[in-house]
Amino acid sequence: MIAVPQFIKQPRYWLGLLVLCLINMALAKFGLWIAPFVNGSISAIWPASGFGIATVVLFGPRYLPSILIGSFFANLGMIPAPLAFMFGVGSSAAVVMAWWVVHLDGTFRWQLDRIVDVVRLSFIAVPLAALMSAVLGASALVALGAMPGENWLNALGVWLLGDLVGDLVVAPAVMSLYAAYVVRPSRGQLVEAVILIVLMVLVIGGTHLQWMGTPNFDPQFHLLFPFIVWAALRLGGFGLAISILSAAAMVVALVLGEPRWVGTSVPYLEVVNLQTLLIILSVPGFLIVAALAEHRHVERRYFEIAYRDSLTGLANRTALVEKLENVVNTAYMNGLDVALLFMDLDRFKNINDTLGHAMGDLVLQEYARRIQRCLRNDDFVARLGGDEFTVLISGHNAREAAAAVAHKILAAMRTPIKLGGHDYVVSGSIGIAALESMMTLNWSDTNRINVAEELMRQADTAMYRAKRNDSGFMLFNSSMDSHTKMQLQLESELRVALAEHQFELYYQAKVATASEQIVGCEALIRWHHPTKGLIEPDKFLEVLESIGLILPVGAWSLREVCEQMRQWREQGLPVQRVGVNLSMRQFLQPDLLVLIDQVLVETQIPADLLELEITESVAMSNANLTIDTLIALKQRGIYISIDDFGTGYSSLSYLKRFPIDAVKIDRSFIQDLEHESDDAAAIVTATIRLAHAMNLSVVAEGVENALQRDFLMKYGCDVLQGYYYSKPVSADEFATMLMRGHYH
Ligand SMILES: Nc1nc2c(ncn2[C@@H]2O[C@H](COP(=O)(O)O[C@H]3[C@@H](O)[C@H](n4cnc5c(=O)[nH]c(N)nc54)O[C@@H]3COP(=O)(O)O)[C@@H](O)[C@H]2O)c(=O)[nH]1
């Protein structure tokens, strides 16, 4: 059974077909009407064929019947029905030919906004279609006895030219008018188009009517060219289409209506002139429009590349900088406020590292959308790169508006995002810098560019402060600058500290819960500042990490620990395992294993005396890499513990994947141990039970009193560490402990 296409059942289709049939018929009638003025039988202009090509290219071959039927009924009554039918078949075949040629490789754009499409339509599809129609039409005339065979070639020529003119004028014009129906021209363009046509009628019509009928009258149709160029340059395809159709109508009317040809037909040379004129008005016009559209497209692409962020579609850094300078200028002129929000996603790197960059991209795209939804139309949002976004707000009370927007954005971020089947909440930190209108009144011109830069810097500083304080968002204030200066000073002092050997390692004992004998220790760094005295690591570790100095300092710690063990062993002390903390950067550095091997070989320390402590978040930052590194460390016999356990977002069952030896319960839980029913107590006991089930040793950090010790003893914690036994002490003091065999 033949399947009936769906469109057949749609009334819209039949209505469309009917309308197209009627238009086709009307245009064919027009062609037939002008035929006697020219040579009596075959029309010099056949607009129906151009309209047919346009409708089938635009709406598909399903509308082909409109051409066959329109042509048939237009001719019926004037010529025998079989001939009328053959003409209809010829017209339809010509349109199929044009449709096939333009769609050969599926790249044709009926909007005619590329030169290649205008060329394909005008120089290949239309000539082939016109030739086919002419061959079939002239042959049908001869075959059905309506014309002697010797006139075939002549009829073919006239038919061909008539179709060419109709196709080249009407087909691109109808396509362009349809494009304007889809993307409406502006009111200004419509007004300009009307003015253009009125002027064209006045100039051409006026000159023509003035001289018409005088001896040696020469029509001044070349005066049409400036109007066509004007339309093509200023109004695009739509303006050009209506100008060309108006010009064609006017020219045909003026030529046919000339008193010289009344009662006779227009001489053939005049007809060819008319046909040539219409073709050279149309084809170059549409080529100009296409060339301009291509140029605009290239410009738009350059603009996109230069000013758009390709991942999120938001404005990029360059666009922000330009916009900021403009907004600052406008604010200066109009006494407005400007506020800049600088936003950064918290721990975004972890998402990239653990879930992959593709998921990271999804997060950025989703958060770009969420930020946009929190803004008004005239706010400006940009992605600076990575996970950094900015929002620019200007107007009255921009600072208050910025704070409200920051609230909205942070609230929008709290909705979890689904990644790989799991819900994640990615929080953000926002810094806000604002310029009040009162201040702007005093700016000089050069100042204003610096002001834009300064705003960016201040918002950035406030964002870092918000991130550090975990406070969501913060407004910039000048005290933040002094903090930044102090940070810079700290950075340079730390570089000096490394070069001048101002770091020292202290050692804190770890004792076995059952015997309370030392079973090892943890090496903890201290800084002997030349003026400020002994500084604890919490005050400088983060800066070391942020400026990358943690790598040489970490390498120094590792070497120092092993060197110290070697010395203690040489002194005959009962050296136990010593733990060294590894920071994120250290753990992820590619030559960590090379360094460890080198140090162990140099100091001749057995690998099982070395313990590496990595925090949960370090282990989780890149699970696959962590497993590989840990396996390599284990193969060497190095002892591995997970530090600060309970503060990250992993679970023991997740850590099961890692080849580790011990977990160190974070001291915040130990300090909260008071009653067995407390949350902390429940967490500690559950951790001990689970860790033991997984054959892991459990160390409790921060044991400060007998109550905590007793609790941990009762629940079978293996090792205790804390001030209750010993604070971190210098290497010499720890050597004394080792000598005594006790932590006192
Ligand atoms: N990457 C490196 N990190 C290091 C290194 N040296 C230290 N650190 C890390 O710095 C953080 C702070 O260390 P510190 O100020 O030395 O504090 C340690 C102990 O003094 C403290 N502690 C131990 N017992 C108690 C106690 O009973 N009460 C109490 N209030 N504090 C106590 O805990 C710190 C040891 O913590 P941990 O490492 O988690 O076991 C700290 O995070 C260090 O890791 C280094 O060379 N490299």
DSSP strand count: 16
Query: Main sheet: which strands, in order across?
Result: 8-9-11-12-13-14-15-16
Helix fraction, binned, reads 55-70%
Sheet with most strands: 8 strands, mixed, barrel
Overall geometry comes to elongated
Ligands, ions, cofactors: ligand LFPHGCPZ
Q: How would you describe this structure in keywords?
A:
TIM Barrel, binds ligand LFPHGCPZ, 3 domains, Alpha-Beta Plaits, 16 strands, 60% helix, eight-stranded mixed β-barrel, 744 residues
Question: What's the short version?
Answer:
The chain is α/β, with parallel strands linked by helices and 744 residues long. The strands form 3 sheets. The chain has an 8-stranded mixed beta barrel with strand order 8-9-11-12-13-14-15-16, surrounded by 4 helices. The chain has a 5-stranded mixed β-sheet with strand order 2-3-1-6-7, sandwiched between helices.
Description:
With 744 residues, this protein is α/β, with parallel strands linked by helices. It folds into three domains: 6-300, no CATH class; 317-476, Alpha-Beta Plaits (2-Layer Sandwich), CATH 3.30.70; 491-740, TIM Barrel (Alpha-Beta Barrel). The protein is 60% helix and 12% strand. The strands form three sheets. Strands 8-9-11-12-13-14-15-16 form an eight-stranded mixed barrel, surrounded by four helices. Strands 2-3-1-6-7 form a five-stranded mixed beta sheet, sandwiched between helices. Strands 4-5 form a two-stranded antiparallel ribbon. A hairpin with a 2-residue loop joins strand 2 (380-385) and strand 3. Helix 2 (47-59) packs across helix 6, helix 5 runs antiparallel to helix 9 and helix 11 packs antiparallel against helix 12 (357-373). The model has no long low-confidence stretch (mean pLDDT 90). Ligand LFPHGCPZ is lined by residues 508, 522, 524-525, 536-538, 541, 557, 581, 583, 643-644, 664, 667, 701-704, 721-723, 728. It comes from Sulfuriferula nivalis. Residues 487-742 form the EAL domain.
